[in-house]
Design a protein that fits this description.
The chain is mainly alpha-helical. The chain is built from six helices and three strands.
Length: 121
Amino acid sequence: MGRDILDIESLECNIIHEEVVAAVRGEMPSDEVLLDLADLFKVFSDSTRVKILCALLRAEMCVCDIAALLGMSKSAISHQLRTLRQTRLVKYRREGKVVYYSLEDEHVGTIFAQGLVHVCE
């Protein structure tokens, strides 16, 4: 068996590679941008929101349609859609008394599709 598994805790690192640290530091987004990114990824941590995004990736839908698809109440769906709107993942348009939801833009679909590919590998 031997040392098949690298024991990270036992490694010692006493050298700081200043050039690498400086180069990476210069390319790091601001803390504010990174916090916004963390908030974006938190939205994906709820399975209901992920199901809604999956549905909207395929078609524009109203709250009633999404509720029927997911077997949930309109109130529960509306609550999740509010969160998705606040993080600019979905948008809506009104047609008479009906409000239709869709993905905000193609980037949302790309993020979702890439995540799906990753977990299916």
